[in-house]
Amino acid sequence: MRRFLAAFLLLLLVGCGDQAKDLFDTAQLEEKQNNRPHATKLYRQIVEEYPNSPYANQAKSRLAELEKAR
Question: Can you give the pLDDT at residue 37?
Fold first, then answer.
């Protein structure tokens, strides 16, 4: 159920506004819900698809922190 909700939220967010910000917000939500694999995937997506976004640097920082926690 939680994955369905997260996927639904992601689809809603991606459809409007700044996609990098929307992905970043969703990744943060996934982290808060202790879904680190999905958060990591979203952060990587930001870095790869939106490298010039201000959220790319934040995503890189979060990825580094998640890697340290492993």
Answer: 96
